[in-house]
Amino acid sequence: MKKNACEAVGIKSKSFHLPEESTTEDVLSLINQLNNDSSVHGILLQHPVPAHIDERLLFETINIEKDVDGVTSWGFGKSALNMEAYPSCTPAAIMEVIKHYKIDVKGKHAVVVGRSPILGRPVSNLLLNENATVTICHSYTQNLEKILGQADIVIAAVGKPRFIKGEWLKKGSVVLDAGYNKGNVGDVDFESCQGVVSAITPVPGGVGPVTIAMLLKQTVESAEESGSF
Q1: What is the CATH number of domain 2-81?
Q2: For site-directed labelling of 103, which of 24, 91, 164, 228 has its Cα 20 to 30 A away?
């Protein structure tokens, strides 16, 4: 889908399919080659990678100017501090949806269900930067249903199909479902939320396409910054 989106808007994309038995060093070599290629403005490591490969080391090797997917710890830190950096694309997409529909997050209680380094944690920081009050929930959280019942805004990023039920949510709350599971369903039980929430993103067709758009947007910005295209 990312490749097709690039073609649709005139961005040249290159795909590198390495054998499963490739080592961390093999992938590092390719990333460094792309880091040094002035015609490349964005590097995307498709993950998860095979278990024998050091995924975090690969992420950290990506040049921050080309980290258009927001996976480096440096980019994460700069985004958290509201400094200039490319945020992770799905959190960026969630914030773009919020902005487009003029959803005021200032002072609102946002509950993020999930704490992954490329979704739950960064979107929490982006919401904090917009003056939301943020609660992060995860697999060890107690009384999840009670916490969700207090939320004005719910970000679902837990990776479990139809996990969040409409009866857990406050009347009139806003739900952004960033999950995608087998069977083309999100992390929220969409049907049970209807009539309870004031707005909800569907799966598929909600946050996902905006995520790809944010990846392309940030790649174009990287190219403009480099001045080499």
Answers
A1: 3.40.50.10860
A2: 164
Torsion, Cα 51 53 55 61, to 10 degrees, reads: 180
On the question of a common fold for 2-81 and 89-209, the answer reads yes
Give the residue ranges of DSSP H helices in 63-157.
73-80, 89-100, 120-129, 144-148
The one catalytic residue among 3, 12, 26, 46: 46
On whether the CB atoms of residues 154 and 107 are closer than 8 A, the answer is no
| 69 labelled catalytic | yes
Q: How far apart are CA 90 and CA 69, in angstroms?
A: 9
With H, G, I as helix, E, B as strand and everything else as coil, classify residue 226: helix
The predicted-structure confidence for 33-73, as pLDDT tens digits, reads as follows: 999 999 999 999 998 899 999 999 999 999 999 999 999 99
Confidence of residue 227 (pLDDT cuts 50, 70, 90): confident
Q: Indicate if 3 belongs to the active site.
A: no
**CATH code that applies to domain 89-209:** 3.40.50.720
Q: State how far the Cα of 73 lies from the Cα of 60, in Å rounded to an integer.
A: 7
**What are the sequence ranges of the domains in the chain?**
2-81, 89-209
